[in-house]
Design a protein that fits this description.
Rossmann fold; 2 domains; two-stranded antiparallel ribbon; 10 helices; 9 strands; binds S-adenosylmethionine
């Protein structure tokens, strides 16, 4: 039987990925993963016939993808801040909009000589790793309630040699009593319990504890804001990611908690995605 060429299998995969919003990119990523090759190899070898075992594996992965499993979970890999991160279904797949949070933290960190940073809910460790790379002299504490997530974060910290990040199992601020930071940041769960977006096939595969936070989605943000002042140095910043339509509510929660200089920053889609406030001097 004549074997399919790589180019033909790519074409078939991308036409078959009917539930994907980016079928060409997904097909490319799945092929690279199964063949364990890089972009350059794939481009140079489009006419190469594909081994039937590899073809069968790709067809199976296309089926999984069509049932809603994110490509990142199928390939155990996701890029964030140009770093390759190990991910699985125990952690949220890091999103591009979270790079807006990293940028906001980096901008505020400039005013501190040797910043101490607390990241709450680190998941795969994406934010902490980006910050560690950009501010190697910072002292970073990254927490999560989920032990499974912390195990993934540990793998990623090791992979990227982030010696200045300490991981800690904690329910938000538990166990941090008495400590003070120049910056506290978080991309907490912020989807409302009954939000219809939760029905999206991809979200079905991500941990609910990373997505949902109470009736209006703001329980975690309310708790983090109300407790943060006690853990910030005077003049220290709280930086929070939230949904595209929550900026006004999050700013109001911060203002009510007596934060100053409260404002929001936009993501690449022009949505107010991150809100910041400073503890008064
Ligand atoms: C939206 S995910 C963010 C993950 C990662 N920081 C990122 O941006 O990709 C929220 C994270 O908060 C963690 N989390 C949920 N409730 C928590 C709690 N009470 N205390 C600490 N972490 C919590 C979840 O396990 C999850 O890893």
């Amino acid at each position: 039987m004549q074997r399919l060429k790589i180019r033909e299998l790519l074409h078939w995969s991308s036409r078959s990925l009917v539930n994907s919003s980016s079928p060409d990119i997904d097909a490319w990523a799945l092929l690279k993963f199964v063949l364990q090759v890089d972009d350059a190899w794939l481009i140079a070898n489009e006419q190469t016939p594909i081994d039937p075992q590899h073809e069968a594996r790709i067809r199976k992965l296309v089926d999984f993808r069509n049932s809603g499993v994110p490509v990142a979970y199928l390939t155990n890999s996701r890029q964030f801040w140009s770093k390759d991160l190990h991910v699985n279904s125990r952690v949220l797949v890091p999103r591009p909009e979270t790079e807006t949070l990293v940028e906001a933290v980096l901008n505020t960190a400039r005013s501190f000589l040797s910043p101490t940073i607390l990241e709450l809910g680190t998941g795969s460790g994406a934010i902490a790793i980006a910050l560690s790379t950009e501010i190697p002299h910072a002292e970073i504490t990254a927490t999560d309630l989920s032990r499974d997530a912390l195990a993934i974060a540990k793998i990623n910290l090791g992979r990227h040699n982030c010696a200045n990040v300490k991981l800690m199992e904690a329910d938000w601020f538990s166990g941090l009593e008495g400590r003070k930071f120049h910056l506290i940041c978080s991309n907490p769960p912020y989807i409302a319990r009954n939000d219809p977006h939760l029905e999206a096939p991809e979200l079905q595969h991500e941990p609910e504890s990373a997505l949902v936070s109470g009736e209006d989605g703001l329980d975690a943000i309310r708790q983090i804001v109300s407790e943060s002042s006690g853990y910030l140095h005077p003049g220290g910043w709280l930086v929070l990611e939230h949904a595209y339509d929550q900026a006004m509510q999050v700013q109001s929660i911060m203002n009510n908690a007596r934060f100053v200089d409260v404002h929001s920053e936009k993501d690449l889609m022009d949505h107010d995605r991150v809100s910041l406030g400073r503890r008064p001097e």
